[in-house]
Design goal:
- The chain is α+β, with helices and mostly antiparallel strands and about 140 residues long.
- It is built from 2 helices and 5 strands; from the N terminus they run αβββαββ.
- The chain has 2 domains: about 30 residues; about 100 residues, OB fold (Dihydrolipoamide Acetyltransferase, E2P) (Beta Barrel).
- Strand 2 and strand 3 form a beta hairpin.
- It starts with a helix and ends in a 12-residue tail after the last strand.
Length: about 140
């Protein structure tokens, strides 16, 4: 039985389609990381040219590092919100200390948001606390 050029061509096309589908799945739909973060909500905006999405930013605070003790550090967490109801809940919590549950993907899709981290739920932790770094005591 002879292998025809037509069979080889269709086999190559099938392999390319399967590889492309696998790549797209792992890049855009497979959840790379799933977790929570707690911090002070800084902003939430509704933005975009064609696909309007909710984009937010939280300030995560932490204490100390390897090089200096007693210092207060902060880190920003940028995220997108795909669900309008969750975005409305978050909008009412601006300036409060909240915990968000998010899923992180390896790639972004225009209708899902600009960021790789997509928030799917939020809980309130209470009012934001602005603790200043303790001043050293000199004797």
């Amino acid at each position: 039985m002879a292998i025809t050029a037509k069979k080889v061509l269709w086999t190559l096309i099938l392999i390319i389609l399967l590889a492309g589908s696998g790549f797209c799945y792992f890049k855009f739909f497979w959840v790379f990381s799933d977790g929570t973060k707690t911090g002070e909500l800084n902003s939430l905006t509704y933005t975009g040219y064609i696909f309007k999405t909710y984009e937010g930013e939280m300030i995560l605070t932490g204490y100390g590092n390897k090089n200096s003790s007693g210092t207060v550090q902060s880190k920003n967490f940028k995220f997108s919100v795909a669900d309008k109801e969750v975005a409305e809940q978050i909008t009412q919590m601006t300036g409060l200390r909240i915990t968000v549950h998010y899923k992180e993907y390896k790639g972004t899709l225009p209708w899902r948001g600009y960021e790789k981290s997509i928030v799917d739920s939020v809980t309130i932790e209470g009012p934001a606390t602005h603790q200043e770094a303790a001043e050293p005591l000199f004797l």
